[in-house]
């Protein structure tokens, strides 16, 4: 079995979160979804568990941060192209997300940051295949 990743984030409105993530092209796994949590399926290896704050609090003794006021993680995911990055941002903004900063274009890598309606930070990026495999210096050495 390949390693899978289950990222847990909080929400104050589970139905709103489900609508937001399905607008990004994700699916909801009903087997692991109830009134406390939704299993958001990105692909066969990446899942988000969107949990109500109360339910999330049952998994830790630490104080929960408000993702609108504090950042704990940035969840970055690659896309197939710059257009895919722009497309998922457009879908997310139309579904209630926001873009808190300008896009970053490093030549070999293009990224955009989005916050979901609860303030959880998602970053979507496209990296040139040469830079991804051999590093940005190799990519830059091939420039005219």
From TrEMBL:
Superkingdom? Bacteria
Q: Where does the Glyoxalase/Bleomycin resistance-like N-terminal domain lie?
A: 5-41
**Which SUPFAM superfamilies does its entry note?**
Glyoxalase/Bleomycin resistance protein/Dihydroxybiphenyl dioxygenase
Its protein name is Glyoxalase
- The scientific name of the source species is Leucobacter coleopterorum
